[in-house]
Every structure is written in C-alpha cells, then in structure tokens.
Task: structure prediction
Amino acid sequence: MTITNSAAKTKSLGIYVHIPFCVRKCAYCDFLSFANRDETVHRSYACQLSTELIGRSAVYGNKYSVDTIFIGGGTPSLLSPILIDAILDTIYARFRVEGDAEVTMEVNPGTVDGVEHFTELRNAGVTRLSIGAQSFQASMLRFLGRVHEAADVTRCYALAREAGFENINLDLMFGMPDERLDTWKADLQTAITLNPEHISFYSLQIEEETPLFGEIMNGKYTPLPEIDDRLMYHHAIEALCRAGYVHYEISNAARPGFASRHNLKYWSLDDYLGVGLGAHSYINGRRFANTNIWKDYMGADEHGALTMWSHENSQRDDIAEYVFLGLRKIEGIDLSRFRRQFGRDFWEIYREETHMLMERGLLEHRDGILRLTRLGLDLSNQVFVEYI
Ligand code: SF4
Result:
C-alpha cells in the first residue's frame, strides 16, 4: 500500500465506490442496488472496479490528490473485507492518496458477525464507518423491510468501537407511517447515548416504483402528516444540538471536527470521481455517469466506454449548483467567496428570486452570508427550485 503525503499540493479529489449488492431490497429503496449474496459475483465485480480504477487513474491519477474515499451502496459490508482491501489497494496504488484521507464505508448492522470483520476493515485502510441503523423500533425496522433488528445496531456499534474505530456515523430515519413523536425521541436518545461522532437523520421519502409507493397507493399505509414529520425533524435538531452536536447540513449533525469531509464535497461543488455501476462524477466542470446496465459495466475493459451520459457544465450551471447545493449547508453561502469563485456579483444574477424568498421568510441575508431560515429548512425544495 503506497500512501503519498502530498507536499506539493495538487487539486483534491474524492472517490466514491459503488457496491450495488444487498441482502434483499428494502421496501422504500430506489437506490441502484439488488439482492445478491454470491461471493463469486462479488469477486468479479471487485475485479471490474479495479479495472475501472486503473482506466480512470490514467486520466486523473496524476492531476489530483485523493483526500476522501467513500464506499457506499447498496451494502458494502456484504463484501468480504478481503475484497474491500483489494479495492482500496488499487486506489492507493494508482492515485495519490493523502496520508490523512477520510476513508468511509457504509455498514448494514445485519451483515457483520464479529469484531474480526471490523479489524480487517481497519487494516484495509477504512477510517470511518457509516452504520445504517435507521431505527431502534422493531415495528419500524419491519415496516422498512430492513434485514437487521434493533439489537444488531448496538452490537455492531460496540464491535466497531472494540476494533478501534473512532469516527462513526449512525443513519437514522423518521417520518414513517404510524410513527409517534415519543418513539422518535426515544430513537434519538438511544443514538445520542451511544455517542457516535456523527448522526444523519432523514425523513422517509416515498419514491415511485418502490413497493412502499404501491402500498401507500392501495391504502395499506397512510403517510405521516407533514406537520408531524416536521415536528420530528425540529426535535432532532434541538436534541442533537443540546447534546453537543453541530447541525451542519439539512440532515446531518456531527461532533465538532467530525463533519463528513466526503459529503461536504457534494455540497461545495468540489471534484469527485464515482466508480462502479451507475456511479456519478463531477470533475473539472463536467458531470458524468457510468452505465447502470450490469452486463455493459461488467463487459468494459480499462479503456471501455463506461459513460452513460456526460454534461459539460456552463458557468451558469456551476453557479446554480453552487447556490442550491451550498444552501444545504447550515452555514449557508458566503457571497464574497461566490464573487471570488465566479467573478460575478450574486445579486446581479439572483436579486429578484432571492428577495422573493427572503420576503417569504425562507432565506436570510446577514453579514454577506445567505442561508436557509428555520422555515426554509422545512421548505428547502421550494428554495432550491428558484436557483435551478
Ligand atoms: S440496504 Fe440500503 S441500498 Fe440496500 S435495499 Fe436497503 S435501503 Fe436500499
């Protein structure tokens, strides 16, 4: 494993590695993932990832230094740690990886059986875990179709700590039909008591073409009223801030110094390379996505045409993305930085829509910073759409 400490600073790059396999498909999930536990398939996919990484490194390897790696999915913890090690080895061998790079892997609590699993992941170079807890309520986990039980989360978390992980995120979900505020409060309290460095809290989204959408349509479930969902959301912010977490993005809070460096790239319009089936990238003003067709992805060689679409951002595209992604951050966007980055005055471009949003109480402008208000956090999509 070669780790380069980039003294001569090049542009930094995040690498996202997509693992599309799961134990089974959850009822609400519209991610690019499918049930597959076949180790032979996992091995072939890991080989193909290495092939892609070798091809991509010929283009980007010397121009960037990698400061974050995120292995997501899907369920990356379904893969044997040996395969995770092999994927990371290819990255370390082909790219310039900074010595203090943040290397995150998503973990499903139902897929880890012992401390050795985590020890092997640490030895492979993983520095941060994101554990998909979602809920500590048996009924909610059943409703979501998760493969784990509440006790698996605490067990998985304890094993990760035992293996020495010092940077752990817990993913929580709220706003399920029939969920009550007091059970959500209890979930949050359980998570806070575990004391992870980072907590993500997402409201359940009902996506078309998922089994859950069908069940809502045929009346099996009634979505939680919006007002209850928002009460849960604001309770989360208050409880987490009271416990010493910093609310830094619409759905994310962290102990000081533990914000997700990789995810901040997405909200700051920084460069990232996505590898794997259907993975998306944004590099040097270009957005592109890999094919999401299995046989095409698996059939490509290192010079193969993996790209399904590609779009060269105009400056106007970059400006719009910078604004609506940047507003996801609670600190908002610094308008003098905006001017330095784009050579344009923010107000010349967005005066009308921004004043309208401020009059509606969704945005506030103070000391050169533009940010969402408390109401704006609830209606953020209505804000973002004005800048697209
Ligand atoms: S584990 Fe995650 S990626 Fe897999 S089906 Fe469930 S929600 Fe989707």
Notes: Residues 1-8 have pLDDT under 50 and may be disordered. The chain is about 40% helix and 25% strand. The chain has two domains: 11-266, 331-388.
